[in-house]
Amino acid sequence: MATFFRRSLNARLIAVVAGVVLFALMAANAAAFLILRNQLEQQSQNALALGERTALFVLDERMRTLNALAVVLSQRPTLQRLLRDKAYAELSDFLDDFRIQGDLDWVVACSRDGAILSASNLPQGESVCSLPGAGYWHVGGSPTLVGIGEVPGQDRSFVMIAQEIDATFLKAVASASGLEHGLVSDGERLVATWLVPTAVGQVKGVERLVDANGVQHLVRYAAIKTGASTLLLESALPIFGQAAAERRTLILLTVSTLITAAVVIVVAVLGVRLVNAPIVAVLQRSADALSAAEAERVSALESLDTLIQSIVEGVIMTDDKGVVQFFSAGAERILKLSAENAIGMRIEQLLQNEEGELFSGETLLAAPGASQLLELRTCTGERITVAVSATRIGRPGEARSVNAYLVRDVTEEEALQRLRSYFLASISHEFRTPLSALRASLELLVNEENPLDLAESRQLLRPAYLSVVGLQTLIDNLLISSAIEAGRFSLHFREVDLRVILADAVRVVMPLLERRQQPLIVELPATPVLVRGDAVHLTQALVNLLTNAGKYSPVGSPVEVTISLRIEGKDEGKEGESAPQRIVRVAVADKGPGVDPALRSEIFRRFVRRHDSEREQYGVGLGLYVAKTAITAHGGSIDVENHPEGGSLFWFELKAI
């Protein structure tokens, strides 16, 4: 081995490096261990000293309390009277009551010459009246706190009250200090709250003792002022946590030293054998430069990421193949899709519209500054409109580039624009059509040279009447919608019969049904159906439902109206059950195309109509909105269902009288 080291410079270098590193690690770890141990020791001693001061304060506070109680007792008129009358038997009962109320161990009344006049619970054979004063004393073999109060005007007689310092009392002190405690007198432990060892410590400074369970404690002793023998307060802090921490730290430092030494040896072997000093220097400089550049790049990327994440619009970045690599928080909010699920998808799939047409990113990339509107449905089912613009990030001629897409939510803007255009077109159509029919009928009447009989006049006036009815319904809905929007919608409640309300509504819509040859099937209860409501608005709601059913039903198909009653809460006699309530249900059924389930939650909103590409679109989308507002204002509910065999069923429910 010696020959090997003499002949191999590499081996000697490895040995020197390994030895130096191992020595340095051991020295550093040893110093760290000693510093940590000293800190833990100092913290434990500080905690012990603080707990000891707290315990002494609690004992002194209890001593002051006992002296105060003794003074209070000595000044009691009853006590003074009993002493003056020498009614010692009655005085004993009085002292018993005071002792119990004050949670004391014993109470004594003494004469000036030290004789016991009366006592409560005093240990037998104890002559306490000869004690020189208040303080800590041994009474009945137990350490005791004694308070004294002189009775005024009673020939210098006095009272003594006492609190034995037993395990229960010390536990209360330990609870306040957070330590374990004991009392020691003349080298003998009198009472303690912990599983103390048999031997008492040296009572000087801080020392370590092990209890009966093998747990190590830091222990210190403090003298308690007393007029007799020396009394010491023993305070103990368990330090099993400190010992465990020291062991863990020592093990960790040892293991880390061995691992680090092994790594250093391996690196030294490889470095000495494979490279020389100039190459190492060059590589080190290169590594430093790369590290600095990488740090700058990471910092720039973090700043850019923070900036992009703060943008309200969504930012999506893809590679040159269109695969999503970055998905900002704004994009998550707009598209209702997490970045975790979006990354890895193709941009064409991510921005696919409802019709299934794929988004073409290349078209936008070829026209920087341009944007494309897309109507999408998010994974939560929400329809949104977004404006997408794109740009290619990268230097000309680079093989790989990054494509950035900016997604802006323009749903509300587009909805407002469509709503404005749709409303103007619809309202123009809805006014123009009946006015044209009305004008045609009136022109025929005005220009007719020959007198017309009654049948011919009715035939000419019937379209005009239907046009006027349609215009009246449209204007009523517009006025009610305007009142709702302005917050001026109000109801005038009175008792009304829904059968009468239905009859009024039928008179309004019957010409429309007759023109479309749609029979009206009505099913009513035999008795009046009374509710509290506004007759005008209830009639308008029914007119809108019947008109809606007639317009969207095929020509010649029937429209059915049903009014029914049911009772809710029939178990009135059961405790906790509500009184029965009569509910009236009005249902209007048609044979039309039904309602798209996706449109069901929106159909009662303003300007929303049923979508059917094969049928003519009717109205401006206010009828169901007005009906829902009226029924809701009456405290009722309204909804729509689709029949399995076709058609829709609009219904509302109100509380009947």
Q: Can you put this structure into words, describing what you see?
A:
This protein has 657 residues and is an alpha+beta fold. Among the domains are: 75-164, Beta-Lactamase; 311-409, PAS domain (Beta-Lactamase, 2-Layer Sandwich); 456-570 and 578-655, Heat Shock Protein 90 (2-Layer Sandwich). Helices cover 47% and strands 22% of the residues. It has helices spanning 2-7, 9-74, 77-85, 88-101, 167-177, 240-274, 277-309, 329-335, 339-342, 347-350, 361-365, 411-447, 454-486, 498-515, 535-552, 623-633, and strands spanning 106-110, 116-120, 135-139, 142-150, 158-164, 180-185, 188-192, 206-210, 216-224, 231-238, 314-318, 324-327, 371-377, 383-393, 402-409, 494-497, 520-523, 530-533, 559-568, 581-589, 637-642, 648-655. The strands form 5 sheets. The protein has a 5-stranded antiparallel β-sheet. Strands 7-6-10-9-8 form a 5-stranded antiparallel β-sheet, with helices on one face. Strands 12-11-15-14-13 form a 5-stranded antiparallel β-sheet. The longest helix is centred in the N-terminal third of the chain and has 66 residues, at 9-74. The protein is flat. It catalyses: ATP + protein L-histidine = ADP + protein N-phospho-L-histidine.
